């Protein structure tokens, strides 16, 4: 598990193979959001055969930025490495 923490220390953006909520049964590395207040893991990406790199979180914990060859926006048909921005409001 690798990740980035917001400045308040309340949220962590992580890279995980966990099968939280049975949303990652193939155990691909997915980007997730984890709260320190016993929040369940929020899976941000759902992918197969995709390379997601560890996310970085902005200072207030509202945005995760990560690099991936996934086609999350239907604008990456060649599956090249792209930078993605995920809004993660609690």
């Amino acid at each position: 598990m690798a990740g980035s923490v917001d400045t308040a220390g309340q949220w962590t953006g992580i890279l995980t193979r966990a099968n939280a909520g049975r949303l990652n049964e193939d155990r691909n590395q997915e980007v997730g959001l984890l709260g320190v207040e016993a929040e369940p893991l929020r899976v941000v990406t759902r992918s197969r055969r995709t390379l997601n790199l560890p996310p970085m979180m902005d200072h207030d914990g509202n945005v995760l930025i990560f690099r991936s060859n996934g086609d999350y926006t239907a604008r990456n048909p060649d599956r090249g490495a792209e930078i993605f921005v995920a809004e993660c409001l609690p």
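DSSP finds no helices and seven strands in the chain. The first strand starts at residue 2 and ends at 5.
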